[in-house]
């Protein structure tokens, strides 16, 4: 009498278990925790700012503070040329700067991932055509192109967001394409094709989940560059003149003569805010990369 031997069935690991392992691995990265703490602090301040900052504290007509005053009691970071608190302007400016950076990153990641996924899956004329378009955008200087797009679309947060997305998606596209080519070379893709899976099913159900860790890492690092781009474009006068952002604060400080007046308290805080947020996203992105990339374990 012979007994049939059965191979143990593969057990799919629940997603919450995988997320728990990710959190435990991330908690072992002190730099990543520091970056996450910085981002949480700025995010909480930005979301809670309407609770303690009113229109009378931001409106240049309603404020009654001393003009371009250094830090004194009641104004920890001094005031601008209209008498508004620089500290409150920095906190309020975090709302617009972070929202533009995050929305522009989302558009960048969606566009770049779609192009990279299609170019990696369809390796014929479609893939070559998409990569030719990608190379064309890479060859163009990003800052002049973003300035031109913002000028054509008009001043405002929407035009800056679109300009950043249009000039930033190429890096994500190339990364996703390279990872797509690597994933589609694996045996399970051939088995899926043999079982009758179509192109859409292969890309969405088999390739995209394996590319998502790379997209996550790329998105965290892209936010940092998007915030810098927003500050640059706003500083050049392409943002909404009625809204408060870190870039518009720097632009107003230079235009208002803060440099010649030696008003360092008006120039340094928004610059430090940009530096801290960019550093936070960079630290988080590097930590996520170390956790999700097995080749970087132990480095």
TrEMBL record:
Record-linked PROSITE patterns: ABC_TM1
GO CC terms: plasma membrane
Entry keyword annotation includes Transmembrane: yes
Swiss-Prot/TrEMBL keywords: Membrane, Transmembrane, Transmembrane helix, Transport
Coiled-coil intervals, chain numbering: none
GO biological process, one term: transmembrane transport
Membrane topology: Multi-pass membrane protein
TM helices/strands, residue ranges: 31-53, 98-122, 211-236, 272-292
Domain ABC transmembrane type-1, chain residue ranges per copy: 94-285
Location(s), subcellular: Cell membrane; Membrane
Family in the record: Belongs to the binding-protein-dependent transport system permease family.
Full protein name: Peptide/nickel transport system permease protein
Organism: Streptosporangium canum
Lineage, broadest ranks: Bacteria, Bacillati, Actinomycetota, Actinomycetes, Streptosporangiales
């Amino acid at each position: 009498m012979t007994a049939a031997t059965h191979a143990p069935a593969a057990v799919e690991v629940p997603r919450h278990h995988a997320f728990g392992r990710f959190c435990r691995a991330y908690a072992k990265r002190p730099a990543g925790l520091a970056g996450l703490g910085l981002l949480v602090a700025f995010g909480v301040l930005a979301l809670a700012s309407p609770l303690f900052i009113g229109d009378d504290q931001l409106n240049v007509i309603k404020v009654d503070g001393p003009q371009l005053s250094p830090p004194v009691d009641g104004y920890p970071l001094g005031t601008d040329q209209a008498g508004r608190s620089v500290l409150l302007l920095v906190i309020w400016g975090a709302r617009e700067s972070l929202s533009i950076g995050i929305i522009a990153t989302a558009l960048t990641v969606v566009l770049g991932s779609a192009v990279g996924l299609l170019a990696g899956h369809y390796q014929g004329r479609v893939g070559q055509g998409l990569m030719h378009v990608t190379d064309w955008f890479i060859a163009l200087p990003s800052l002049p192109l973003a300035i031109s797009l913002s000028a054509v679309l008009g001043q405002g947060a929407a035009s800056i967001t679109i300009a950043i997305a249009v000039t930033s998606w190429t890096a994500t596209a190339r990364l996703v394409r390279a990872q797509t080519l690597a994933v589609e070379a694996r045996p399970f893709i051939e088995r899926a094709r043999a079982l009758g899976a179509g192109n859409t099913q292969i890309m969405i159900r088999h390739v995209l989940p394996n590319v998502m860790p790379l997209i996550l890492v790329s998105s965290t690092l892209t936010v940092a560059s998007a915030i810098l781009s927003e500050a640059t474009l706003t500083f050049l006068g392409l943002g909404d003149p009625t809204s408060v952002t870190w870039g518009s604060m720097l632009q107003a400080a230079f235009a208002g003569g803060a440099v010649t007046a030696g008003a360092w308290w008006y120039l340094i805080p928004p610059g430090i805010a940009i530096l801290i947020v960019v550093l936070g996203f960079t630290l988080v992105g590097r930590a996520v990369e170390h956790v999700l990339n097995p080749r970087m374990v132990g480095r």
